[in-house]
Amino acid sequence: MSDECVPSIDMDAKHPVKTTEKTLALVEELMERGSCGVTELAEGSGMGKSMVHNHLTTLRKYGYVVKVGDEYQLGLKFLEVGGHTRKSMELYEVAEPEIKALADETGELANLLVEEQGKGVYLMRAKGAKAVDLDTHAGLRTYLHTTGLGKAILAHLPEERVDEIVERHGLERVTPQSIGTREELFETLEEVRERGYAIDDGERLEGLRCIAAPVRTSSNEVLGAISVSAPANRVSDDDLHDELSKRVLNAANVVELNINY
């Protein structure tokens, strides 16, 4: 894969716009806190109350923030923007029916994830009849090294790009099973390339097993990954490396064919 196809994840602006930064800081604060008042937002952001109020008034005018009583919360305008962004992505449009079919066939949770700025972003998930309800949702960001989806993507990025991601985001051990060193990561990624699919065995959530396959273009550029997740007590090693892997690989292959041809 050509490095020209891979955007840099160095997002440090040389001349950041302070007003924009403050507005986004308030958005992040509201996303973390949920509904809260001007005083709480001022304390959390380090801004004055009048400045916070001015930013909130502007966001409210355009539908990005709503006011309920004396408190503010994020508005559904963000859902409109996110939905439009996702709908415009060819990978999502092509993969959506395959993800739903995979969930129906397995009865478990099927997922689609892409990489952005060195982290994994869930584009969608579909629940089968037996699927457990996890903390994942469209838009959730996660460390790539802790998921089968992320490892399926990392395995098909240039080594220097993987190093860049590790340097930026680190290798936090989210659970005792998580990868925690560069050597361990690169050894695992080599196994993923040899096998054709990646496995997450309780590396992000203990008690959960996941199998994932990459989705690539005809020029070998990795676009994202597809997975099935299920409780560990329902997935044996034989299931993981036989029936489930075949189903996930087949779904990824169908998506690749539809995108490439």
UniProtKB/TrEMBL annotation:
Domain IclR-ED: 77-261
Highest taxon, organism lineage: Archaea
Pfam families: HTH_IclR (PF09339), IclR_C (PF01614)
A GO molecular-function annotation: DNA-binding transcription factor activity
Membrane-spanning ranges: none
A biological-process GO annotation: negative regulation of DNA-templated transcription
Keyword Ribosomal protein among record annotations: no
Occurrences of domain HTH iclR-type (ranges): 17-76
PROSITE patterns in the cross-refs: HTH_ICLR (PS51077), ICLR_ED (PS51078)
Keywords recorded for this protein, A-Z: DNA-binding, Transcription, Transcription regulation
Coiled-coil spans in chain: none
PANTHER family per UniProt: HELIX-TURN-HELIX TRANSCRIPTIONAL REGULATOR, ICLR FAMILY, HTH-TYPE TRANSCRIPTIONAL REGULATOR RV1719
Protein name per its UniProtKB record: Transcriptional regulator, IclR family
Native organism: Haladaptatus paucihalophilus DX253
Lineage: Archaea, Methanobacteriati, Methanobacteriota, Stenosarchaea group, Halobacteria
